[in-house]
Each structure stands twice: as structure tokens, then as C-alpha cells.
Amino acid sequence: MLAGFSRRQLLTLIGMTAGSAAMYQAMTSLGLAVESGYKGRIKLEGDPKGASVLILGAGLAGMVAALELRQAGYKVQILEYNSRPGGRNWTLRGGDTYTELGGATQKCEFDEGLYINPGPWRIPYHHNGLLDYCKRLGVTLEPFQQLNHNAFLHSTEAFGGKPQRVRDIKIDFQGHVSELLAKVTQKGKLEGDVGKEDQEMLLEALRSWGALDKNYAYVKGLTSSEFRGFAKDPGGGLGAEPVPSDPIALTDILKSQLWGNLANFALYEFQTTMFQPVGGIDMIGKAFAKEVGDLITFNAKVTKIEQNDKGVMVTYEDVSKPGATQQASADWCICTIPLSILSQIDINVGAPMKAAIDAVPYVSSVKVGLQFKRRFWEEDDLIFGGVSYTNLPITQISYPSTGFNAGGKGVLLGCYTWGGPSSYELTSMAPEERVRKAVEYGSQIHPQYKDEFENGVSMAWHRSPFTLGCAGDWTEEARKEHYDNLCQIDGRIVLAGEHASYIPAWMEGAILSSLDAIDRLHKRVLKG
Amino acid sequence: MLAGFSRRQLLTLIGMTAGSAAMYQAMTSLGLAVESGYKGRIKLEGDPKGASVLILGAGLAGMVAALELRQAGYKVQILEYNSRPGGRNWTLRGGDTYTELGGATQKCEFDEGLYINPGPWRIPYHHNGLLDYCKRLGVTLEPFQQLNHNAFLHSTEAFGGKPQRVRDIKIDFQGHVSELLAKVTQKGKLEGDVGKEDQEMLLEALRSWGALDKNYAYVKGLTSSEFRGFAKDPGGGLGAEPVPSDPIALTDILKSQLWGNLANFALYEFQTTMFQPVGGIDMIGKAFAKEVGDLITFNAKVTKIEQNDKGVMVTYEDVSKPGATQQASADWCICTIPLSILSQIDINVGAPMKAAIDAVPYVSSVKVGLQFKRRFWEEDDLIFGGVSYTNLPITQISYPSTGFNAGGKGVLLGCYTWGGPSSYELTSMAPEERVRKAVEYGSQIHPQYKDEFENGVSMAWHRSPFTLGCAGDWTEEARKEHYDNLCQIDGRIVLAGEHASYIPAWMEGAILSSLDAIDRLHKRVLKG
């Protein structure tokens, strides 16, 4: 800090002399802004002098590397197992087919314009790297609804199995907590924890925040109903007076365990404003492919990765012509193959990286998309986007964040498990059986399912031939022992992907991992 | 309830025999759903036998009445003061001009595609009447962001005037409250308020909900940072470990009074999922006008409303040809003129209705739209939609809920007051002075304002020639004494509009009021 200057004065000075962008940089360095994992658009300065890079995988990590390295002067090629770009950045639409391990093939029968994203599907506002690529590549975004106060929280063990509105559990819990704390505050039981003057402000704040009445009670009345909604909403004309609703008792909320779902709406990763690309998450992968698609060899199943002090040679099989192996080589290799697959490929890296590759299990996850004749969740239940959570094996139902209030058919994400026994159980089923189960379970929350269901498609990530799981599942111990070894450049090979990041399973992890890898690789190349 | 049947069994039975729509009706009647002020699409059955209705005002209330009454067989005409339909349902775009009382004319200079909504601008998910008309009339909706965790809460009296992220105030307050309540619970101080078994669940719930650590403390660490965000976000590759952030102390939050803004995000009226029409709020008024525009006489300033037992005669002046009065008559009259104006018009209704018309003052409100060279709130501050609140006279800054992450110019709602001294003070200024003030105040929150500002437009509702204020400002006492008298049919005249509803200032109030009025009027007409 310059002597004699306050932060504010300093900022003003910077703002006046250097403009607002400089000021924002200064604000960041003064600790007024969060430091992002994304350091801004990468600058790979210096001439790589014709060096070549072979990228394994045309997911987001691979395509980011290809885009930036080609621009920096490298000769780039990509090998990709699938017949399409994007990897897990993928959308299923009517007409698409997908064959999982075990050989079962599904044909998606959704109507035109409807889709599900079997992999990633939402973008937090602080995933700056991904947002910046969306901007550069012209991917149009729309808000993704995570918290919908009118969606449901459901437990077969609570409220007689009757779904509760998120709103009621969320606001009633906050109200009861506020009332309890106000009571002990008034009784002088906070002692030294809160100063006397603060206690008065605390009471005032709890009343406002907790929707308490003038006696600091959370009770039925217009005050609480202005937050939790009414038994009868206010209307117009005669007989239009609102009727207050009954809060749920604290003991019922506590016993229901439904409060456990509230964190899903408050986490940094799930807070407003979240996004999704208009038209499906694969708009991102497709936008990258528009830039680097010419570099990709599809249907290339890597079977061996060899390096020596001159370069890297990769053996692969054309999956459309089984048996015929081919080879590709380059000075350097960026490998974005998921560790679940890579651990089964012959690769001559040092023992630390090899141990790291073998150390990370992959999360099991199942998604099911269900098409219905009409958007009954909007028409009957006034649920516009957002997620309902349940203790049933389907775990959650997510409503589309697009096409609101327009009527017509719709596709729900009718099941989305993440780890746990349900994932394994559903994975063990045939695809159509998963769909059947999702309809059966979901109809406990939305009885309209039975009349309105048309068709469905399911994705069990542990049966995915190109990932064998959903995402790297790091434990704290594994991170300590293996993470840095995984990310180091080993000879002429460096790994990238969500598994090589602290944001596993998110697209941003893949992108930041890739940017860090190519930054270090480029420096290594320049050193010669 | 049928004897021997549980609710669930009954519902299943209904569902099986009568389908899901019938089941939903049954769920509603069993208390599983909220009773809306909107009773579904209105059915005006029975022949009005050529009866005619004169509607005063082509705002939403007037156009709803026109649409439904014409369809029911009435002869309908509308008189409208403005030269456009919609009333307060209105959008200002580049090229539009507006002359306020006092004669000052503004020309809006926004770039193509940019706008502000000087009046209503957002739609709660439970405003079923409005949503249903949007659906019927083909108005495309998109989500309106009210709560953005990354927007600011600002007070000149707190944190040295430095804006705080909504996220930090919201999550830290919840964390501290949870910690305090957990502490007294552990010390056994809740006594009889919470049963022993519930206390253990309460502790568990507070830990989850309040982001407490294993000792029930709300402290710096990964647990709290997973909610409030990090000092350094997690990244990819090497050196990517997240760094936890420091929570704000409870005493600082309490003293800041910033907690007072949190209710703005939790109220039933402001909860997710909210909507706005794509392209501006006046898409709604325009959609109505597409249906009933042929019935509207524009530029018609009503000066007298007379009724006798045969019909209603209205005298009006063509404001484009001052001095020339004209007359219109019909069997019945639906008057949607704001009470602030109507109270100054000669109208021969009974004393109770006249007293009601005179009893309701109108809220003062000012909005200012500001165009900037770039969307710095997104680019620099990662604020995508939502509202920042401040104790400055501008009260709030609202960021556009559309065009996210695409760059280019943008228009902020740079001021939105609702009552209070600021509204009067700003109203007393010339339009360009309001804009200048909004820029000056706003730059305390966004220093980028000074470099990036281009042009602005302001709306002070108390200077609006067609409303003389923003919306009816009912007190509880006034409602008791006058509300029913206002809504009764007086002879051949019935009033409608947001002022004749329990949802003042909202478009839904105007619509529900109108539906109730025409429903009663129609019954009266059929009785003969």
C-alpha cells in the first residue's frame, strides 16, 4: 500500500489515471474480489518452432488445448474414441443412439427440440474459464434454475409420503430457528457470546429474516405467509382477502430430514445465477469443434502410449474397423483420457504418475430422461424449472429450465444419482428397466406420470465405454499422495481433464486443468 | 372424506378412474395445493343479448375485460388516454419519447434491443392469471433474476462504504445464527422449547444448514467456503488448491443493517422462479392489443362519467385536438382509471364508492434506466442479473436478466425507489438531473460507471399524466373501511385495476380484479 493513501483513495487514483479495467485489477489485488482459478485468456508467447503435440481426447480439456496450442504455433492433432466431439459434454436428442457396455443400444425417441444432457448440465457464475470460452465461441446462455421454491422435497418416511414444497421447509426451518434464538436472546441466555447492544440488533434482524411476528414468534399469520405463501392467495375484487397458511412444526421438519436437501440450493457451486447453453450442453463442445474439428481423428481407441526422449508414439485402433491398429506420433502428448480408462492402457510414465493414474476411482452416476405428453409440472403444480429432491433411488427430478409456460411436451430429468447404492443398482439394470423404475418412483411425487409418460432414455456412467464412470472421485488422502504427481509433466506427457483439477466433475475443472497443463508444457518447450 | 379411504387411496382411485387433471383438482380440494386468486379461465355463460360495455383504460385490466366480454357476446369499446395500449405495462426503447407533467420531454437514446420497463417488470410464479394470459396470447417468458448471490449489498455507513456480496451477508448471517443456536442447544438452554430427541436432530440440521464445522462453529475453513466462496477458488493442474475465505463477524453484519435487505430475496412475491417477457414487459400489453386493439380509441381523456338507470355516458377530450369534447355511451361501464385520476373526474356514483375513490393515495416511485458502453457488471464483477441494494437514494440497481455473457452494451435499472423521501426528492428534479444523480450515486457501488456511462432515461410516477403515481397505497384501515365499497357494482359502473385488488402494484392484481368485476357484471346483466 502506498504510504498515506487509503484503499479508496488509491482506487480512485488508479481509476482516474488508468480506467476501470485497471481499477478492477487493483481491486482484485487489494482483496476486494475473489481470486479465480481462471487467470484470464492464456498468452502462450514465444515460438514453439514447429513443435508438434498429440492430444488424446476431444472433450473440453482436449479441445481447449488444441485451440490454444494451434494458435500458439504448434502442429496439433487429436485422437478421439467417440464418433463425435465433446466427450461427456454431450446431449441426447430424438434420433440419437447410444450403445453402452454390455451391448444394449438405446434410440432416443424425444420429440424435436427436446433433450437431456447425460453429463454436465449447468454452469456456476464463477466458472470464469468456461464462461469466457462460451463468450469467445459465441455460445448463447440462459439461466439454469437450481432453487425453485415451489419444487418438492419428498421422503417416503415423512409427511405420509406427501411431497412438501421447498418453500415451506426452507422458510419454516428458518422461522423456527429464528424464534428459538430470539427466545434465548430475550431470556439473556446468550451471555458473553453476543454483546448487549448487538443482542438488540440481533433480535431485530431475526424478526426480519425469520418472518417473526411482533412477539418474535414464528406463527400462522400474514407475516409468515408473506414468505411461505398463503392457504388462499390474495386476489382481486370482492372476497379476495388472503388467508394465511399454517407453518409446519419444527419437530416435523426435524424428523423429516428434508432439511438435509437445503444445502443443495445454497452451495457456492449451485447459487444463483447459474447457466446452461440454449439448446443443450453440447452447444459448447460443438462450438469448440467448429474451431478444432479439422484436427480430430474420430473412432480412435488408444491402446498404447509410448514416449522416449525424442517424442511420443500412440497406438490406436479404428473402432469402426476392429483389429486394424494405427499409430500417431508427436513431440509432446497431452492426454485427457479418463483415469478409469487410462489405468488400463499401456503407458510408459514414471512410477509416481502411474501410481496416481491408478489411485482414483470413478463416481457412479445414472441419469434418466423422460418425455411426457404435457408439462404437467408447470400446468398443474406451478413448478417452473428447479430440482425436487427425494429419498427414493431416483434422488432428484429436475424440470427443464427452458420453454417455460409455453405448453406442449416436455422432458424431465427423472433420475440423477451420484454415487451410493442406488447408482450401482440402477446401473445393473437394462436401460429400459431404469426408465421403467424412474417412472414408477417418480409417480410417487408426480402422480401425473402414469397418464402422461411417453418415452425415456437412460445413461449409467459406469457402463460408458468412453469413461467407465462419471468423474474422478478424489479422497483427501489420495489428493495428498497423488494429485501433484498426476499433474506434473512426465517426460513428454502431461495429463489434463477434470480429474486433474480441484473442481472434479465440472467442465471448468477440465478447462482450467488443460490451461495449466499447456502453460507449463509451453514453457518446457521453449526451454528446449 | 370417504369412510375407510386414506387420502392417498382416494387420490389413487380418482387418478385411475378420472385421469390426472381430475386428480389434481382433488389434491387441491384435499388441501395439498394452494388456492389461487385465479380461478381458471373465466366462463361467461349466458347471452348478454346485445348489451354494450364501455371500458375506460386500455391497461391490462381494461384489455382483459374487453377480451372476455367481447367473446361473451357484448358490444365493447375502450377509451384510452395514452396513444398506446398497456398503461403502466410499458417499455421504453431507443427512439421513444415521453413527456411528464411539467412539460419535460425525454427522448430515449438506448441502442437497438436495449430497454427499461418503467412500470411493472417481473412476474411471480404464482401469478396464475397473468401467466395464463401469457400462455393464451403467446407471450414468451424468460426467467427474471431477483436473488443473485454475487450482487451487492451496500451501505455508506458500513464496511467503509465498500459493497459486500449478497452471498457473504446471507450465508454468514445464517452461519452465525446457526452457531449461536447450536451453542445454547449444547448447553441445555433450550429447556422445554425443543424436546431432547429433537435437540440432537436440531444440532445436526444446524450444522448442515449453517455450514458449521464438526464443533458446530461457523469459522473460516473449507466447510464455510463451500457456501460463501473462497479467497482463492479451486482451479486445475498444479497450485490449484482452494484457499478458504474469512467470514464476516456477526457484530459487523448486525451493525451494517445489510441483513435488512435479505427479505427482498425470500418473500413469496420475489422467490424463484420469477419471469419477464422476452423483449420487454410491454410484450404483454401488445399481445392483448393484438386481440382488442380494434376496440380502442386512443388519446381520449375522460372528463366526466355519468350514469342513469338506462346506461352510462362518458365525456372525453381528444388530447391530440385540445378543446374538442366527445361522448361515448353504453349500457354498462368498467372503469379502470387509477383512483389518483378518477378522484378528480366528475362521476355520479354513490357516496360509499366516491369516498373509496378518494381514500387511496398513490405510491411515489422513480426508475432510472442507464445505458453503458459495456456490461462491466458481468465482465468485471461477475454479476449476472439480480439486484444490488443500497442505502443511497437510488435504493437498488438491477442488472438485466437477458443477454448474459454475450458482451456489448447494456442497460441497468440504475435507480428504483418505492415511496419514502428519496422518491419525492428525485421526482422534484428534472429528468436529466435524476439521471445524473443515478450515475453519481451508482458510481459509489460500481466505479466503472464514470468511464462507461452513455445515456439515460428516468420515470417519476408522480409526474405521470396518466396515473399521477405508481400504484394504490392501501393502509389496513382504508381497506377495512373502503375496499368493498370500491369493488361493488354501483348502478351501472364497476371499477377494476390493481387498486381494486389485494395485490396492489402487480399486474396480477389488475387482471384478477378485472376478472372478478366482469364476472359480477355479467351476472347482473343476465339478471336483467
UniProtKB/TrEMBL annotation, chains A, B:
PROSITE patterns with a match to the protein in the record: TAT
Domain Amine oxidase: 60-517
Group of enzyme by EC: oxidoreductase
Molecular function in Gene Ontology: L-amino-acid oxidase activity; tryptophan 2-monooxygenase activity
PANTHER family given in the database record: AMINE OXIDASE, FLAVIN MONOAMINE OXIDASE
Family under the similarity heading: Belongs to the tryptophan 2-monooxygenase family.
Record protein name field: Tryptophan 2-monooxygenase
Organism: Borborobacter arsenicus
Lineage, uppermost ranks: Bacteria, Pseudomonadati, Pseudomonadota, Alphaproteobacteria, Hyphomicrobiales
